[in-house]
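Incident log, structure service

09:12 report received: a user says their structure output differs between two submissions of the same chain.
09:20 pulled the input from the user's history:
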Amino acid sequence: MNEVEHIASIADVVRLAVAPVFLLSGIAALLNVLTNRLARIVDRARTLELQLAAAADGRVATLQASLRRLARRARLVSWGIGLATASAIMISVVVVVLFIDTVVGVNLSAVVAVLFIAAMLALTLGLLCFLREVHLATLYLRIGAPEPEHTPRDAERRSATDRAAAR
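09:34 re-ran on a clean worker, output below:
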């Protein structure tokens, strides 16, 4: 291959590498969101742990339940971060393999395909972890004046009792 053809083939690889690089930017944004969510979960857990030390007996069980939910959410976010990071690493390796394929002249298209598929699977699983964490976060969401000593189920039972007593 002459020098002009070689430069043209490298230019083609650069064009091919642009899409994965944009994908890396999207994954970086997702990682930013996930790490911010993890930081908020950790901050909330620390606040609840401080409250737990001075809590009245009736509130201890509620705080412990909240801490368990936060721990579950933190694990999901952590898995999401790990999977998104693994995806980004595999996409980076795809770009490197594309260049190696062109420069060395070895056909590595199967390696590129497998890496890209694995990266997309990891990203999909990371997004599913994110979706589940958001679902858990909104499951116990309360808007308005909080009643920290009661769980949502206790509040439902109490409101049913209040309605029955009002009749």
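09:41 both user submissions now match this output. Likely a transient worker issue. Closing.
09:42 reviewer note: The CA atoms of residues 52 and 64 lie 8 Å apart. The radius of gyration is 25 Å.
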